[in-house]
Fold this sequence. Notes:
Elements (H helix, E strand, L loop, with lengths): L6 H18 L11 H19 L3 H5 L6 H13 L6 H27 L8
Amino acid sequence: MFERDTRLYIEDMLEFCGKALAYSSALTEATLTVDAMRYDAILRNLELIGEAATRVPEALRAMAPGVPWRQIVATRNRVAHAYLGISADTVWSILHDDLPALDLALRALLTRMNQEPPATGR
């Protein structure tokens, strides 16, 4: 079975963070849900961040203890499974309070990882 380099999951998370932030950059909290397609795209990228996080091995998570791994996965589960279960103000808070910090933490983790040999598997 093919095992993906774990760096790719961190790169995926960064890509999805970037998309969610870009899609919301011109929005305000009041206009966040006005464009339903854009809002759905933001939610999808939040879900994908969490999906990628589920694939990050514990040893790698331990290298970034400031990243709220469990909360990221819980947010993914809430977006994916809780029909109408996440409020727009919570999404706004994630976009403006959490994602910028997550982006910085993941970049720092990726820098550390790039200084070490590739790791695969869980």
